[in-house]
Design a protein that fits this description.
By secondary structure, this protein is α/β, with parallel strands linked by helices. The chain is 45% helix and 18% strand. It has 2 domains: 4-133, Rossmann fold (3-Layer(aba) Sandwich); 136-374, P-loop containing nucleotide triphosphate hydrolases (Rossmann fold, 3-Layer(aba) Sandwich), CATH 3.40.50.300.
């Protein structure tokens, strides 16, 4: 690997100076030095680096607390502790705090530099392998409709629920950035949102994970903005970073999209493996769908776009008419079941849970099973 970028954290200025003197090597580069306190957490959270080196010539104590907080927010760095004569108790405490290795500060400059390089290289290789393995089967599924009220959120929530019930790791992201309702459908009354996370300006897996809310079904949920004006904070590069990172952790990432085709939505569509285009059997919805499908084609997204007919049976327009009009055969047809759908929303429970025997629930569950079989 190239030179290792090191954040050096020590309470004493004399210790920071002493440790810097031990690291005089072209393969090691100190990019920042600070105290491991509250201000240090802010500096360490934003500083690009490979290693956080906590150092002291006295007894390490507060360093463990700092390491533990950093371990939960920066999964991309290796945390090391440099201290005199570490005991078995010290090493056990370090492991509990997320410290990869405890190095004896009295072991000599050469030995210290070698251990830093070896541990950092090993950790970097391990993280690369984990990302490759965990992202292999990951699928991003976007649920979209250009018209509100077609049941897009119902489809997204229940597909996520069906996948989670098959022991898949599922994240459900509310990308209806102005007026998202995923929280309502799952009875999540409040919590951190995607806008709150974007304000932190870091998209490490540990940070994103801290903004996911665990639903009782096992689905990890990221809520939309609390207020429409906060939607402007989320830019396409944020969406790309969030989804690319979530791929390394979840089997399925389900997106409940808004109705607009803005830059952020297009960014999500480009990353998605499949786009479920939700329509109803009514003229207005199909008219909007036909125009939007032309936009999808212009964006070269047509190959990953599939039609889902929701609320089938409520109109004189039939599935065959939808197929002919849109020139696409639906991959999923969900029967109209207003009683089950309303009961689910009012109770804040997925329809597949509170009305598992309804024909609508059975259709969604069958489709979710087919998604798993195709992987």
């Amino acid at each position: 690997m190239d030179s290792v970028r090191i954040m050096l954290a020590a309470f004493s200025a004399e210790d920071r100076k002493f440790i810097s003197g031990l690291l005089q090597d072209e393969s090691l580069r100190i990019v920042s030095a600070f105290q491991p306190d509250k201000d240090g957490l802010k500096k360490a959270g934003a500083q690009p680096a490979d290693v956080l080196l906590l150092g002291t010539r006295g007894k390490a104590d507060r360093e463990y607390d700092f390491a533990e907080r950093m371990y939960t927010t920066r999964s991309d760095i290796t945390i090391l502790l440099l201290a005199p004569g570490p005991s078995a108790t010290d090493i056990a405490r370090a492991m509990e705090s997320g410290i990869a290795r405890v190095i004896d500060i009295e072991s000599g400059e050469s030995a210290i530099r070698t251990q830093i390089l070896t541990t950092a290289s090993r950790d970097q290789n391990r993280r690369s392998c984990v990302v490759k393995v965990s992202s292999y089967d990951s699928k991003v599924v976007a649920c979209y409709s250009p018209k509100g009220g077609v049941g897009k959120t119902t489809i997204a929530v229940n597909i996520a629920y069906a996948l989670a019930s098959m022991n898949k790791k599922v994240a459900l992201i509310d990308l209806s950035l102005q007026f998202g309702d995923v929280g309502v459908f799952l009875d999540i009354t409040k919590g951190d949102t995607i806008a709150d996370m974007v304000e932190e300006r870091t998209f490490e897996l540990s940070t994103i994970r801290s903004y996911l809310i665990r639903h009782q079904s096992g689905i990890m949920v990221m809520l939309s903005s609390n207020s429409p004006e906060y939607a402007e904070l989320i830019r396409p590069e944020h969406i790309e970073s969030i989804l690319s990172t979530l791929r390394t952790e979840f089997d399925y990432v389900v997106l409940d999209m808004g109705v607009s085709l803005g830059d952020s939505a297009i960014s999500a569509f480009e990353i998605a493996d499949s786009i479920l285009f939700i329509v109803n059997e009514d003229i207005a919805a199909l008219h909007d769908a036909k125009r939007s499908l032309k936009v999808m084609e212009a964006l070269n997204l047509q190959d990953k776009t599939s039609i889902v007919v929701n609320k089938d049976g409520v109109s004189t327009i039939k599935v065959g008419d939808v197929t002919r009009l849109l020139d696409m055969k639906p991959v999923l047809v969900v029967p109209f079941d207003i009683k089950s759908a309303v009961m689910a929303v009012n109770r804040g429970i997925p329809m597949l849970n509170c009305a598992s025997r309804s024909k609508a629930s059975q259709a969604i569950r069958t489709y979710a099973r087919s998604m798993v079989r195709r992987v």
